[in-house]
Amino acid sequence: MQQSGNDSDKKLVVTAIRPSECGFSEGKQNRSYLQLGRGCDTFGIIAHELGHALGLIHTMNRPDRDEYVTVKFRNMPKEYQAQFKKVSEADNENFGIGYDYGSIMHYRRRSPGSKNNPFMVPTDKKYGFTMGSGMISFSDISLVNELYSCKGTVAGQVRPVHI
């Protein structure tokens, strides 16, 4: 995550202009856009896109991803391939937090509607069905805490969150 300028001046604009688009993009003038069109109303999709807004990248874009998954570019349409591009170590800080197949920021092994030919294959086959969880994982929370230097507890207690 790269911070610039005064973070208190940054704005997040949530829109549903494009009827079937889910996504996050950083815009100009300290504005970022969270697009939540039709079909983007699940907890997992919203949490994933908010993860981007908080500065998280896709797990399978980490520089060390080849140790954990093999990306099958030949099995995906060209327009998907940019979603699987690795970032450099200089542009990614994982704070020593390990690769998490179950991260809300990790894609499933194949796209919806694709019955065969996975986009990704885990190096450890046991993780094949755990990729792309619809829930926020402990490592997701840990990464956000590290990004924002939140290292303490609230009132000395951990309280469960019921969704």
Automatic annotation (TrEMBL):
Example of a GO biological process term: proteolysis
Keywords (A to Z) from UniProt: Disulfide bond, Hydrolase, Metal-binding, Metalloprotease, Protease, Zinc
Cross-referenced Gene3D superfamilies: Collagenase (Catalytic Domain)
Enzyme nomenclature, EC number: 3.4.24.-
Domain of life from the UniProt record: Eukaryota
InterPro entries referenced in this protein's UniProt entry, alphabetically: MetalloPept_cat_dom_sf (IPR024079), Peptidase_M12A (IPR001506), Peptidase_Metallo (IPR006026)
Cofactor binding annotation: Binds 1 zinc ion per subunit.
Gene Ontology MF term list: metalloendopeptidase activity; zinc ion binding
Domain Peptidase M12A: 1-151
Ligand binding (Zn(2+)): 48, 52, 58
Keyword Mitochondrion: no
Catalytic center residues: 49
Keyword rRNA-binding annotated: no
Cofactor dependency: Zn(2+)
PANTHER family the UniProt entry points to: DISCOIDIN, CUB, EGF, LAMININ , AND ZINC METALLOPROTEASE DOMAIN CONTAINING (PTHR10127), ZINC METALLOPROTEINASE NAS-37 (PTHR10127:SF831)
Protein name: Metalloendopeptidase
The species this protein was found in: Oesophagostomum dentatum
Source lineage: Eukaryota, Metazoa, Ecdysozoa, Nematoda, Chromadorea
